[in-house]
Specification:
Layout: H1 4-9, H2 11-61, H3 65-80, E1 87-89, E2 96-98
Antiparallel strand pairs: 1-2
This protein binds zinc ion.
């Protein structure tokens, strides 16, 4: 017979368990959404702080966006442990990013991955 495990516990019991499973799934989803909302808030705050600091550096010290992009690229390479020749060109903005990145650091474009890369 199909669903032999359900016939063993009785249909009413199986329905009760399904309702409990649904409630638990809803609670897990709600908790995950709350955590995502907190992270989004933190990211928004950090983005504003970064933008403010960058505006000071540009205005007070004359740094350019290109200099910032070069520094970010160097940090990206250092953090990923990649060699300079292990970079991919973003198909959208043309900047170089570590081949370990799945998204471009600068514009968010997905970076094509080799089928044989982990
Ligand atoms: Zn890009």
């Amino acid at each position: 017979m199909f669903y032999s495990s359900l016939s063993g516990m009785g249909l009413a019991s199986a329905k009760g368990q399904a309702a409990v499973d649904v409630d638990e799934a809803r609670a897990d989803a709600s908790e995950a959404k709350s955590e995502a909302d907190v992270l989004k808030h933190d990211i928004d705050r950090l983005m504003m702080i970064t933008e403010a600091l960058w505006s000071f550096l540009k205005k007070e010290h004359g740094y350019s966006d290109d200099e910032l992009a070069k520094a970010v690229g160097a940090i990206d390479l250092r953090h990923s442990g990649a060699e300079k020749d292990a970079q991919e060109k973003c198909p959208n903005c043309g900047r170089m990013v570590s081949e370990h990145r799945r998204l471009c650091l600068y514009c968010g474009q997905p970076i094509p991955q080799s089928l044989f890369e982990p």
